[in-house]
Design a protein that fits this description.
It is built from 18 helices and 8 strands. By secondary structure, it is α+β, with helices and mostly antiparallel strands. Strand 2 and strand 3 form a beta hairpin. It is elongated and about 85 Å long.
Length: 424
């Protein structure tokens, strides 16, 4: 058996030199095989396991069944296996009378196959929500009839309603869809190959000042457990929101003050150890141990939906574009600016990959250096919070903020107003 990406050229040149037959396993479509006999006959087949036993379905000869049709049939078979149905009993063999031409495949039928092929992605739910925004008049069209201008029109409509970030993300998802259609031979040419994003997204640049950091801490303290305590942990640790929200008690080693994030939760799929400062341990001791999750409202699942808590803090702080991810940027900036922490240590704390040759040889995790940096930062934050009195809300902002910070808010408001006028 040989593994390769089946193409029309490979199918035409495939021969059986020894034995009665040879199988070519397609690397693009799971369980799809091309069997070439010593007589020269070439047949597509689907090899799978069901209830511990191996089965083979002969789909058809290459002279009457195209590669695109065989891949489409294999996708349907795998979908039935995913549902627990044996395709050998439930689906008849693929014959020329039941074939579907490429031009007859509509976008409505292609999207479920794409989502099933990408089902292991972490963002599969977001992919599904984005593709649901495609109007019905385009879903009924053939995949060959979708043009670059039609996708650009949909993206512009999304940009007017949901903003430039949603529009750009829609284009990225649809380009991924059409690249997959091209790889599956459902379309001959990808019309979105050179389609660019309609809006320019600026990278996050907001770093919280000392007064703003204190306000976030006090507002999170007012929110209380679980969202307020989780935001305080985000402020002290600088880890990703999803990782902190899914924290479990079994992952925390209180004896060594280390939190081990499992690979299933981490973005780069590698487990990550985070040293816990004294302030973090103090926060964790205030959390109730009623569930396996540290932060939960149902005792069964971790917390989710940070929009309302973040908006409450944002409204009181009067910062239009402030996000929870800015806490991560603020920690990294303050470690370098106030505590003289090397960039390599900051990368290890943030769990960013260090791409250089030395990384292949130096396997030291710098755990003592990370602990020292996070402990210094937590001590600095707690001293800063204790020095600044708790503010009451928007009414106190004009009295307590320096002129430079007030001007900073005014500039940010004007940018937000200008962007709204632009998309409208």
């Amino acid at each position: 058996m040989q593994k390769c990406k089946l193409t029309h050229r490979i199918i035409d040149s495939a021969i059986c030199k020894q034995g009665k037959y040879i199988d070519y396993r397609d690397t693009e479509t799971t369980n799809l095989y091309l069997r070439v006999s010593h007589t020269g006959r070439k047949v597509f087949s689907f090899l799978y396991k069901f209830k511990g036993r191996q089965h083979r379905i002969t789909m058809g000869d290459c002279t009457v069944l195209s590669l695109q049709q065989a891949r489409k049939t294999a996708c349907n078979y795998r979908l039935m296996l995913y549902k627990g149905i044996d395709p050998k009993i439930s689906i008849p063999k693929y014959t020329p009378s039941s074939t579907v031409e490429t031009a007859d495949i509509c976008l409505h039928d292609a999207i479920p196959q794409f989502l099933y092929a990408k089902r292991n992605l972490r963002s599969i739910k977001r992919y599904t929500a984005v593709l649901d925004k495609i109007p019905n008049k385009y879903l009924r069209c053939s995949v060959q009839g979708i043009t670059r201008s039609s996708i650009r029109t949909i993206a512009q409509d999304i940009g007017r309603v949901s903003g430039y970030s949603a529009s750009n993300y829609f284009i990225r998802v649809v380009k991924s869809l059409f690249s997959w259609l091209e790889s599956m031979d459902m379309i001959q040419d990808n019309p979105l190959h050179r389609l660019k994003q309609l809006y320019t997204e600026n990278q996050g640049e907001w770093v919280l000042e000392d007064d703003e950091l204190c306000m976030v801490w006090h507002q999170a303290k007012k929110l209380g457990y679980p969202f307020g305590t989780c935001i305080q942990m985000l402020l002290l640790l600088g880890q990703r929101k999803s990782e902190v929200a899914r924290m479990q008690w079994s992952e925390i080693d209180f004896g060594n003050a280390i939190w081990t994030i499992p690979s299933a939760t981490v973005k780069n799929k590698k487990s990550h150890k985070v040293p816990l400062s004294d302030a973090c341990i103090a926060l964790l001791t205030t959390c109730p141990k009623t569930s396996t999750f540290v932060f939960t409202t149902t005792d069964k699942t971790p917390i989710s939906g940070f929009t309302k808590p973040t908006n409450r803090i944002r409204n009181n702080m009067d910062i239009p574009h402030w996000t929870l991810h800015d806490l991560r940027r603020t920690l990294a900036t303050n470690l370098a600016r106030n505590h003289n922490t090397y960039e390599t240590i900051i990368s290890y704390i943030l769990n960013h990959s260090v791409d250089n040759i030395t990384k292949r040889y130096n396997k030291h995790p710098y755990m003592p250096h990370q602990r020292k940096a996070l402990q210094q930062y937590a001590t600095w934050v707690m001293d800063l919070v204790s020095q600044k009195e708790e503010f009451k809300g928007k009414g106190d902002n004009a009295k307590r903020y320096p002129t430079a910070i007030a001007d900073r808010y005014a500039i940010r408001k004007r940018e937000h107003k200008r962007f709204k006028q632009f998309i409208e």
